């Protein structure tokens, strides 16, 4: 049976890069939605709601077609507080100081919408992320690079110079924005199989020996 068209409802270059490692051919058709959390909305519910809304919003453009829409949403949470993308340098500085030397959580939700069957399936990956004791000078240098401003929590785990995270033992790809093993097990519910060996490709490209990939594919709630 021919594979349906895969539509990535995102303009994130990181998600495109990660998805390409799966071997799936895909097209880009970003969703454009209000991403503000609802009052009192817990982080897991927030990212699941947004991922689902993005998938549905793009799916209506392909009504009647054999297509699957992939959407994702990532947020950083410190306790019950959701930290979105910083609006300016002052907000980025405050976020980075708040997270410094502590462990916080990153929530990434994945949604797959089978347009033909009008079937939406979702999953969420929750990662515990320990941050190192970077200095104020390092924060300022990182802000000057411009990198924090399009990222929840004002940082990128993969940044080659800042390297804010230490002793991480979860899904590296999820903190970047798309947990590939969670995506693979979610796709299996729609009878979709990636062309590539996803765990091997992910670890090879990230140069990261993931300790949880087998547990994820076995259906465990780890991130």
- Overall 3D shape: globular
Q: Class in CATH? A: Alpha Beta
Q: Estimate the helix proportion, in percent.
A: 25-40%
Please give the domain count.
1
Task: Please provide the ordered H/E string of secondary-structure elements.
Answer: EHEHEEHEEHHHHH
What fraction of residues sit in β-strands? Answer: 15-25%
Give a count of the beta strands, DSSP E runs of length 2 or more. Answer: 6
What value does the average pLDDT take? 95
* Terminal-residue CA separation: 32 Å
Q: Kindly name the structural category.
A: alpha/beta
Number of helices: 8
CATH hierarchy: architecture: Alpha-Beta Complex
* Multimeric state: single chain
- Largest β sheet strand count, sense and barrel closure: 6 strands, mixed
Any idea of the CATH topology? Maf protein
